[in-house]
Amino acid sequence: MLDLVLPLQCGGCGAAGTRWCPICARELAVRPDEPHVVTPRVDPGVPVLSLGRYAGSRRRAIVALKEHGRADLAAPLAEALTTALSNLLTWNVLDTPLTVVPAPTRRSAARRRGGDPITRIADKAATGLPGLTVRPALHLKAFTRDSVGLSSADRQRNIAGRIRVSTPVGGAVIVVDDVVTTGATAAESVRALQTRGADVLAVLALAHA
Ligand SMILES: [Zn+2]
């Protein structure tokens, strides 16, 4: 339906006539030595891995998907996530069976944006990998402020105790998030899952800021 009102444009660079151009595809491609370990200010106590910096076409694709309704960009992002998960399985950092738990999105925000993009990306990514199950088990409690514009300490205060686990998740778990910034949400997600008995192996983000 978007095609009726908007000209076809690359979600990464704005090039005309394509949804996702080869240059942006190359920029988003996960190399054999990726994802890399990153060190956010708030340490979740498990390795945090990222597919790349929150910049360039990666950043624009994530923003376009989350804020501008470009649901089609879930496909290239999911492909990158599949490669990253597959590499981690090859390196034995991860093992199957594995439960993929998307980081929580504010409900109102998710609704406004037409569903939770990170869950959609995780679902698509896991489809190609046997032994992986996606469980959207993490939810933000009501009245959690959007973290945009908050300092690291304020984000931590904002999110502390605010994530609940809606369905039991046992066994090995990886938390998947779109962007890791201070690490506050990742840390609280890991803590909430561990409290409920999950063995959280790592956090994997599409990007780190
Ligand atoms: Zn492009």
TrEMBL record:
Gene3D superfamilies given in the database record: 3.40.50.2020
InterPro entries for the chain: ComF/GntX_DNA_util-trans (IPR051910), PRTase-like (IPR029057)
Protein name: Uncharacterized protein
Species assigned in the record: Mycolicibacterium duvalii
Lineage, highest ranks first: Bacteria, Bacillati, Actinomycetota, Actinomycetes, Mycobacteriales
